[in-house]
Amino acid sequence: MGSTIWWIRRDLRLADNQTLAAAMLHGDEIIPVFILDPFFTQNRGAHLRRSDFLHAGLQYLNSSLARSGSRLIIRRGKPVDVLSQLTSEYSVGGIYAEADFSSYARQRDNSIAQSLPLKLVGSAGFSHPSEVVKADGSPYTVFTPFMKAWHSRHLPSRTDLLQAPGHIATPGDIASEALPHVGCVLDASQFHAGEAEATRRLEAFTGGIDAPLFAYQDQRDRMDRGGTSALSPYLRFGMLSARQAMVAAREAAQLSANQTGEDGAETWLNELIWREFYISILYHFPEVTRHSFRPEMRGIRWRNDPAEFNAWRNGTTGFPVVDAGMRQLAATGWMHNRARMITASFLVKDLLVDWRWGEAYFMRQLVDGDPAANNGGWQWTAGTGTDAAPYFRIFNPVLQGQKFDPQGSYIRKWVPELSRVPDEHIHQPWRMPELLQANTGCRLGKDYPFPMLDHQARRQMALEMYKIV
DNA sequence: TGAAATGTTGGGGCG
DNA sequence: ACGCCCCAACATTTC
């Protein structure tokens, strides 16, 4: 049958990989290739942490392939050129890749498919976005009906999962560049790349009767606790498939069907379906990457003050919970989901900055930065998206801190200058008497900034701004 | 997956 | 004992 290329993009795993399985079905020999595309690598500096996570993942994948009798081929260049060359040199019968619905990937793949036998199999989501649509074929734009439709159609179970191939035959004479270098910026984050780590984390989160999953509903918003799965970087690069995650959630839900905590599995599954929803939105409405989904929101006149934007990025807004989130992001490339909502709301509704500025900054910093989920999250917060939070839903950073970091331990962890501030002032350090400021080493305006704005006033401005449109 | 403003209720202090 | 006021607690409406 000849060779087939498994063109790896964001499916860095051997288990439950439909793309790899299809490639193996259609060829005797597999050429697993990852292409370092100048479109991405030229911009690597801007996405250092995510690049490093990817590169570490490639090293891990290469080891896994080696254990299966294969190896990873690294090539550098425009994908169409690299693939043309490989195809002609090794009489390749087909190129198999997982579908990717971000705008660059779609253009790239469409153009390659015109000259090469590219076949797109599977996707980063559980199902193809064209599968879960309304009866008349139009896409869902409201989450709840989408979620219900999803539940009625798809009930993955363990037997649906594909085993990792035992042996992968790969031609021995194919030249490869060296595996890309992994820098040290990942050291600060808690994420180790690779399929095994992803599987281990999934098992730790969902396995057993005491699994954190069962406390998910109660704990997920608590920034001071590790109640979330923190699996997003693994899902982002396909070190874990959506299907594997969903199967684990379902099995846990069944295990606990008659016990407390069953809602946790349901709630987490819903979060995975939100991810499917945003993948679907990006697929059906690619223009959301450029502007607001809701046309009537495209004329908002944002303030876009660069100095204020910088204060937000640096975590020096003077609002402890906002600064904690932004510093966690800068330090680790990851942020607790509740903190993402709080910081995003602050940027959009207190600083009145265009949500796309925030989207771009998050994309630059996040290890799990994904065009669909990141865009969906930002448009949700800004109230510009599908089924978004209404424009008047404005987070109060003090109340959010009090609710979801009651003792301020999340704040103290990421904003060390507040570490000695007592609990009763941790969310509003500006209310500390001067003597206490001196005693706790947190003098406002010196050790930690005064709040950069009056939330009540900005809230009114935001309401006006949205109303004018 | 919000918060503020406004409305309602009921217990208790008080004359 | 009773009406009145105050206000906390809760509910509803509004942005």
CATH C-level of the largest domain: Mainly Alpha
Which architecture of the largest domain does the CATH hierarchy give at level 2?
Orthogonal Bundle
Give the beta-strand count: 5
The overall pLDDT average reads 94
Q: Helix content range of the residues, please?
A: 40-55%
Our measurement of the CA-to-CA distance between the termini, rounded to an integer number of angstroms, reads: 61 Å
- pLDDT below 50 for ≥5 consecutive residues: which ranges? none
Arrangement of strands in the largest sheet: 3-2-1-4-5
User: Main beta sheet: strand number and arrangement?
Assistant: 5 strands, parallel
What number of structural domains do the residues give?
Answer: 3
Radius of gyration: 24 Å
The proportion of residues in beta strands is 5-15%
CATH fold field value of the largest domain: DNA Cyclobutane Dipyrimidine Photolyase, subunit A, domain 3
Structural class: alpha/beta
Count of DSSP-assigned helices: 20
The arrangement of helices and strands along the chain is EHEHHEHEHEHHHHHHHHHHHHHHH
Query: What is the 3D form?
Result: globular
Write out the CATH superfamily name of the largest domain: DNA Cyclobutane Dipyrimidine Photolyase, subunit A, domain 3
